[in-house]
Amino acid sequence: MRGETFYRNLFRLMNEHFIGMKFLAVVWEQDQALTRFANSQIHQNVAERKISLSVLATKDNKLALVTSNDLTVSGLKSLREKLEKMLEVATPLDYQFKLPEVSVGYPVENVDESLKKVFAEQRASVFDRMLKIAGKDVLIFGYVSDNVTENVIMSSNGTFLYQSFGGVNFNVVAMCDSGSGYASGVARSYEALNVDEKVERAVKFAKMSKQPVEIDPGSYTVVLGPEAVSDLFMYFGWLCTNGYTHELKISPSAKHLGNKIGPDELNVFDDPTHSMQIPLFYDLCGKKREKMPIIENGIFKNVFYAHGAAIRFNKKPTGHSFSLDDLDLSTPINLVVEAGSVPVEEIIKSTEKGIYVNRFHYMNIVNHQEAIFTGMTRDGTFIIEKGQLTKPIKNMRFNVSFFEMTQNIEAISKELESVASEYFPQVAPYMKIKNFKFTSKTA
After folding, report:
1. pLDDT category, 334, cuts 50, 70, 90?
2. Which of 79, 81, 194 is nearest to 130 (CA)?
3. Band of residue 443 on the pLDDT scale cut at 50, 70, 90
4. d(CA 159, CA 284)
5. Which residues of 379-415 are buried (b: 16+ CB within 10 A; e: fewer)?
């Protein structure tokens, strides 16, 4: 980590070499390392340090954006020259742009001491724990990764914000003959990473999944694991909470915002303060991020406005500007589906007949306007009979309307888990849902 002092000096240099230019600058610097394993053997250790400085400049209601990894004086001069040339030929915007208001805040550091000096042996020790859990009969595949990130937001009108954060994440696929199981996790330190319990579950599912049977497509009561729940709500967050598409009435939110879409127990937040999240406390325009409800007591409460969309539609920015390339884009990056009140063991025991789904894969959107999602089950799908997981099932394809699905939620577990999703960490419970539609078998 370079630390706050280094970046305050960079801010001083930028103010010296960008005199007369209105700009917003964002620095990302990350130290990341990864240990990958396959067939129960480590086969890759990699580490990298990367840095980027992106500068958005504005003049005569035009915008130009340049990114570089050169933080030297000559690099800053080159950036300015490129920005000036781009602004000369840029097309004026169709709305009146202005830089974000000045934002000043205390430096925020969320890097656990244990992550400041990490070696490959630390990640290998996590793999060793997994290997002992798997035993001789189960092969494991996956990775263990750690990172420390520094993010700085600076502007010509006086904004300087420094934040740093770190995290550890893993995923593991356990395979036993034709059976497989899966688990993932995220935490702010190695000590907080819930490895053993999740790998035990993945190994158990792999052993239980051998010789799966086929069932007919149709509507079933399902119990979804946190991995599956997080996927559904990730797609919902991406598709349905963007204020820009909401205002254009091309988002499902135009139809459903403000409506009761699920039971009172359904609460979903974008929450950087949650103890199981990796927090980002300022967005890239310097807006302080706070816990914001998306769905509250079953009501779809809010969409989010990035800086550009807020200006366009005369709204207040909500702290969801995460791309200088697209100042209209907003999405929740600290997504938390809150816990309910029923232990997952009771949820399964209360299910006379249904299907347990560990996770989905290859998800996609069938109908953007109606929020209809599709995907396939994977790595642990079982028939539930009289409150017990019995036979494994061959994978199935599902098609569900998100807003019909939420109306069919019957129970939400009191247990919460962190999930290393494809883009951002998420926190999710188990859910029991009726009339979940499986449309076909898979190969």
Report:
1. very high
2. 194
3. low
4. 11
5. bbbbbbeeeebeebbbbbbbbbbbbbbbbbbbbbbeb
